[in-house]
Amino acid sequence: MHTYDIQLRRTDIDAQNHVNNVVFAQFLDDARTNLLEGHASSGTPWRVVVAGQRLSYRMPLIFRTTPVAVTSVVERVGTTSFTLTHEIRDGEYLYLSATSTLVAIADSTESDTGAAPRPLTDSEREYLMTLAAPRG
Prior knowledge:
Helix content is 19%, strand content 33%.
């Protein structure tokens, strides 16, 4: 499991006085970026695209000065992609649950078709498995 704390900003709040839905997606992106920075394959940053994302809003998140946590767990590792489940919560409440599928892509200089999917490396798979939910 990976945890990333988010400090809310007043600009995250919409006219209804809660965190805007689009901002939740940005929070997930920030957490994923931090998760991937935890392992640079051969010193090279990961190149991934979000192939799919599903967000389930559980309750409004009102501005606060204490951070909320984004937890991410690897649910599945495939040949070229992996799926993460996310939650945004504090110690008491769950504000959002989400699922993201990411696809590893080759550097556009490595492919004449642009950013094509590429297989995950053994090192990337090993790192992702350290973030997987325990099987039971």
